[in-house]
Amino acid sequence: MTAPIVPSNCQQCPHYQQSLLGACHHTELALVEGGKMHQFYRKGQLIFAMGARAVGLYCVYEGKVKVSNRSADGKEQIIRLAREGDVLGYRSLMSGDICTTAATALTDCIVCLVPRPDFFSLLAQNPQFSQALLRLLARNLGDAEQRLLHSAYKPVRERVAGALLLLHAAFRPAAASAAYFSIPVSRDDLAALSGTTKETASRLLSEFRQEGLLTTQGSRISIRGLENLREVASLYD
Fold it and tell me: What pTM value is reported for the model?
């Protein structure tokens, strides 16, 4: 991927309105722009690691990111997926703890970093920013509760279908005309997102392919029966 020019002015960012920074005033954004940095990450490259100190708020400018942790036996679990306009690292910033998750580029990515002092300056000065952050934390807590219920009660077939829907939403192009597109995801990542093994995820992909719900080409998946896949994922709701 050829790295695009990242605008120094956050208001010129195409994701500004949907981002957490969309709650900021012009003068506050000027403060952010003075200290903001951006970094290009190759697919598979670590953006921040478990156990690291939170150095600031990460804003995804381009690309897709997985947020994950590892159990004591080294098994990875993907907590959530992030795409353009999403922010990362805010929970550890707010709690003052070290990062309990890792963020890794699922595709080539460009990620902006708002340094820790600037983040807390926004938090202290702007009630709208604070409220937007609280809503984001509440939404993520609700999503975590749903994942916990699904992992406890949903059969693995429904979990894999649900993971494919999450990937479809994360990789869906902005253009409404793009009815079909391929999702570059490894079987390991699909398994980590579904809470199952690589072998089981591969077997269920074969079943879905035979049922006409998707096609595969190497590590790329194209969903063809979106509504039918939604029915599979919600069978036990």
Answer: 0.89
